[in-house]
Design a protein that fits this description.
The protein is of the alpha+beta class and 465 residues long. The protein contains 24 helices and 7 strands.
Length: 465
Amino acid sequence: MELWHGSEVVVEHPSLDKCRQFNDYGCGFYCTPHEEMAMEWACRTESDGIANRYELDLDGLSVLDLESGEFSILNWLSILADNREFNVSTPLARDGLRFLLDNCLIDISSYDVIRGYRADDSYFSFARQFVNGMISLRQLQRIMRLGDLGIQYALMSERAFSAIRFCDWKPASGSEFYPKRFEREQNARRKYLDTVNGFDSEGIDIKDLMAGRVDLDDPKLTSCGPSRTYPVYYLEDAMNNLGDCFDYAVNDYGAEGSRSLSSFFCLSGVAREFERGNAWVVSGKSGVELFALIAERSGYQSGSIPDRTYRFEKTPEYWTGWILAYLQWRLGESFEDLLHAVPFDALCNMYYPWHEASEERVARLVCDIAKKTPRQTKLALARKRLKKTQQDLAYESGVSLRSIQMYEQRQRNINEASVTSVRAIAKSPPLQHRRPPRTSLRIQRNQRSVNQAHRRSLSLVSAPT
């Protein structure tokens, strides 16, 4: 992968020995996948800087991705607190910092590369304000989402340094990029003021965590990692495009929502592209183009795609895609988990009267539903992605069906399973290359047309003469 590092000089041979100690994740070499961000990092003043370009081979490296759904913003915050100096001027800040270090700190010593947020000047001060009890966790999460801070990769081990190769460098003009850096800081502070304008009476603060009023495994904490969503300026495009995609797929093409469309949307990888915020999917494709991409990746031939019908009013299917995109962006959950809690047809049925409510009210409703819905285990998610039943996995791995059921129902902890069982499950024959029948949606579309014709004929027979 391509990485950039902003500095005052050309760095052809990065070395762990030359890295500074007090950085976000400790002593390491910090890079960004974005060229322009590296230009800004290089220009801390109006003096010119250097953007160094590298290639990093991740094969064989152990990567800690703080952006994944396994971790919450508290994990990121505790790592930050362990490596940088926090101003603990009050007893609350001192005790809150100790609570985070004792309960949320991850052991990062075994990882070669760490991927996560960069705590720039403004954002480090926002983190301090949470520890000091001045803002809620929800406010901190929202600031981190809206601030457009960017993602950084930190090389933490000699193995990582041996896997990076210097390519070339570009000059960074201080007169151009220092003002951009300054504007980014000012924009972050403006968004901070907009976000914390008023007391968050329903939010969780550091005192709630310390008093045990909120479980650290609560979905409110784990579902909204610091950087699982894309910038807010893509949100309107994402909501409209996914709404158009679902509307076209069901009402023009004839796909069935819960049985095929939502499953293929997740299995095709398009859902994951949305979650990662890839602009060419979120904003660069129309709804019809999104559906064509889902069809292509799912392995069936879409044939001649019918023309889109433009409707004066939005359909329940459009609203389903529209609100689903918002929920994923707002809550930081994967589409698979959202559709597990509230399936496609259930969302469609919520159209009346919820399409008249605000997006935030719908988000609170879905959160309440999700609390009552058991979260899927990683084993269940992986099995479903491979289109295996529990019986398939039990037969292929040699692990008993009852054991697999208990692992997926959390009645037994798979982390405590024997090495033999875990290895057998992991090594079971993969089915990821088995594609759905190529005619699956076409058959459903034809069947839908037959059903509609049958209903029309019945209405003609029963019509009064």
